């Protein structure tokens, strides 16, 4: 009997030095370094460069990369005008997809698929994703676009462009950690889609637009937004046990719980849980956190033995909300972080490119005859 790997689960199609995941033990590493160490000791800028080059940078290399990011933060006026003319109420991921596609039209190097050009475009994309997403948010809220600053970190600059005021050092660092945790995660759907597009020797902008389209789907991006919807439905910690128990009894999905890869705690959720607790206590917004704690305990007690635990989306929404980010923009924030992983994976695969061309097992009719239209019933 022909074996079919539904959803390509367990199928190996390439080699990578970037990210390793052991779902059974809840392990995630980049370049062999645990995600916990990246979150504690590094920055989004450093991780982005490490992924692009598949090695830890020197201080000089990181300083040069940081300067390049800052020099490329501004987006062309044509892209700003496009964003201003988008319909009110547009889905932010649709807006991002369209803006990035148009950004490619303004880049004279966009059709160049050499390794040097792919890397240069990647740097511009990493820098400009933040500016585009902040601009979309501002315009949709009826506010003026805030120009980027070159004296702030990547994370701090995004919060500045979003809110129109400089964030505190703690807020900037918290968002920096959130970006680190989402920067890359192996062969997820959007990264695979970017690679599939790249395998045809298509341009980098097409690869990234493809990835945005894959991330837009609710089975990939958007779970943290739905967690916030769930928290509002629960209302208070006292209601959490009954709410979750009822969902489990009806075999309904609990948002932010379970993962295709992890059959143990998602290590990223452990990092974010600590920061969510800190923020909740400091800002006096402990209600959401208490609900999440109660839900986590109920889920682990009831179905933890089946390898179902909270994932990174479980706590990320509350962190984003405390930073002034609206839930409709949680998935674009995912893209803001994952752009580094997308670009790095395309660059890595391009070094030993092979056109992706899987097969499907045919289950339709064989030896059928054409029936004239007038004779069909």
UniProtKB/TrEMBL annotation:
<comment type="similarity">
    <text>Belongs to the citrate synthase family.</text>
</comment>
<dbReference type="GO" id="GO:0036440">
    <property type="term" value="F:citrate synthase activity"/>
</dbReference>
<dbReference type="GO" id="GO:0006099">
    <property type="term" value="P:tricarboxylic acid cycle"/>
</dbReference>
<dbReference type="Pfam" id="PF00285">
    <property type="entry name" value="Citrate_synt"/>
</dbReference>
<dbReference type="GO" id="GO:0005829">
    <property type="term" value="C:cytosol"/>
</dbReference>
<dbReference type="InterPro" id="IPR016142">
    <property type="entry name" value="Citrate_synth-like_lrg_a-sub"/>
</dbReference>
<dbReference type="InterPro" id="IPR016143">
    <property type="entry name" value="Citrate_synth-like_sm_a-sub"/>
</dbReference>
<feature type="active site">
    <location>
        <position position="259"/>
    </location>
</feature>
<keyword id="KW-0816">Tricarboxylic acid cycle</keyword>
<feature type="active site">
    <location>
        <position position="313"/>
    </location>
</feature>
<dbReference type="InterPro" id="IPR011278">
    <property type="entry name" value="2-MeCitrate/Citrate_synth_II"/>
</dbReference>
<comment type="pathway">
    <text>Carbohydrate metabolism; tricarboxylic acid cycle.</text>
</comment>
<protein>
    <recommendedName>
        <fullName>Citrate synthase</fullName>
    </recommendedName>
</protein>
<dbReference type="InterPro" id="IPR019810">
    <property type="entry name" value="Citrate_synthase_AS"/>
</dbReference>
<dbReference type="InterPro" id="IPR024176">
    <property type="entry name" value="Citrate_synthase_bac-typ"/>
</dbReference>
<dbReference type="GO" id="GO:0005975">
    <property type="term" value="P:carbohydrate metabolic process"/>
</dbReference>
<keyword id="KW-0808">Transferase</keyword>
<dbReference type="InterPro" id="IPR002020">
    <property type="entry name" value="Citrate_synthase"/>
</dbReference>
<dbReference type="InterPro" id="IPR036969">
    <property type="entry name" value="Citrate_synthase_sf"/>
</dbReference>
